[in-house]
Specification:
119 residues; Cytochrome Bc1 Complex, Chain D, domain 2; 4 helices; single chain
Length: 119
């Protein structure tokens, strides 16, 4: 019986942000959070940087990808490219929309520094 107040306090503390209507601190909508998860699961092996600073196989995705054209990005995801598989049979249209919505929140990376001139 002594544990009941502690359990109740824990449950109240765990649900407090939802009880007060606070949003997650990442600033993303539910659709964008789903897109982040799907991108990590389906696209991350090629488009997210691996550990230890290695290069990615595909280009890094950001809000300027495909010239900022959402329809073009959807087409790439659905139909693929010569170097990328098509996902039209794997992802639902709502899933693709979620990925595009998330990618549009990713800031454009700064340009890479020019290599030092050889002497």
């Amino acid at each position: 019986m002594k544990r009941f107040p502690l359990v109740l306090l824990f449950l109240l503390a765990a649900g407090a942000p939802d009880a007060f209507g606070q949003q997650a601190s990442d600033g993303l909508t539910d659709q964008q959070r789903l897109g982040r998860q799907l991108l990590s699961q389906s696209c991350g092996v090629c488009h997210l940087p691996p550990a230890r600073g290695a290069r990615t196989y595909g280009p890094m995705l950001h809000k300027g990808t495909s010239g900022g054209d959402d329809q073009l990005m959807r087409k790439f995801i659905q139909e693929g490219t010569p170097r990328m598989p098509a996902f039209k049979y794997f992802l639902q249209p709502a899933d693709i929309d979620a990925i595009v919505a998330y990618v549009r929140t990713v800031p454009t990376p700064p340009p890479a520094p020019a290599p030092a001139a050889a002497r």
